[in-house]
Amino acid sequence: MSDEPALIHPLVTDAQGRPLDVMQLRGLTVDCIVGLYNRERVTPQPLRLDVALFLDARQAAVGGKLANTVHYGRLAGELRFLLDACRFELLESAAEAVCRYILAPPTDAAPHARVRAATVRVTKPEALGGWAIPSLQVHRTAEEMLYRTEEKPFGRVDVIHEGATYGIYRLRVDSGGRIPARTDGHTEGCELVLGAGLLLQGQPVSRGMAFHVPRDRMHRYDNPTTTEQTVLGVYRPRLVPQGEGSPDAVEAAPGPGTLYYLPE
């Protein structure tokens, strides 16, 4: 068992003054790029994540539907993806990005109960070579979060968080919409498919699959379903994708992807 202390978080209530329920994910550890120094920018190191989500679970308890709570298995995969893809400079950046993602309103492709507040702790267990273990804990509420949404030909883009060297975006593809191959020649990143039913280069792609986005070779997504579908994208440097074809884009199937969701 881990000797990491339990999260200390405040009491959070709903509009009627009732305490909100608390869902926790503890001990999510990912080897990733995090830190400012040169050695930290080239060599992955463990980053531990502990989160507490404040929500009302009453409806889920009665109805037994995942859409009325938070699918903690999928959330764990999405947080692993963010830690892998963002290459954070600071613990502060990692904690803020995780909070903003958790507190973002749900989409049609990934419905869940609205999370009203979140406590997040990030820990670098090997940063000081055993002398001490640095960590940072923050608490944020949904009310203090502002999100920008930009309309695009394929649907819309939610700007979740923009750091110094990266941006986190939700690409929301309308029914019948297409994100064409696109490139600006200097942006790379990763994309995680959140919903079921998208086509990648004309082929079905499973929910929870992530793909590397190189600088000069892009792929397209088509949504043949009757509902909106969502792709979670992390791009470096930060840049909201234009969603329009580029004459310089080389359209090609991506390499093998990585599955971030546990089999269901």
Topology:
Blueprint (H helix, E strand, L loop, with lengths): L20 E12 L5 H5 L2 E11 L2 H6 L8 H15 L4 H13 L13 E7 L11 E7 L6 E5 L2 E8 L4 E7 L4 E2 L8 E6 L5 E2 L2 E2 L4 E5 L3 E2 L2 E2 L6 E8 L13 E2 L6 E2 L5
Parallel strand pairs: 13-16
Antiparallel strand pairs: 1-2, 2-3, 3-4, 5-6, 6-7, 7-15, 8-14, 9-12, 9-15, 10-11, 10-14, 12-17
Helix pairs in contact: 3-4
Description:
This protein is of the alpha+beta class and 264 residues long. It is built from 4 helices and 17 strands. The strands form 4 sheets. Strands 5-6-7-15-9-12-17 form a 7-stranded antiparallel sheet, covered by helices on one side. A hairpin with a 4-residue loop joins strand 6 (155-162) and strand 7 (167-173).
What keyword list fits this structure?
264 residues, alpha+beta, 7-stranded antiparallel beta sheet, 4-stranded antiparallel beta sheet, globular
Q: Ends: how far apart?
A: 26 Å
Q: Estimate the mean pLDDT confidence.
A: 88
Estimated helix fraction: 10-25%
Describe the main β-sheet briefly.
7 strands, antiparallel
What is the compact description of this entry?
The chain is of the alpha+beta class and 264 residues long.
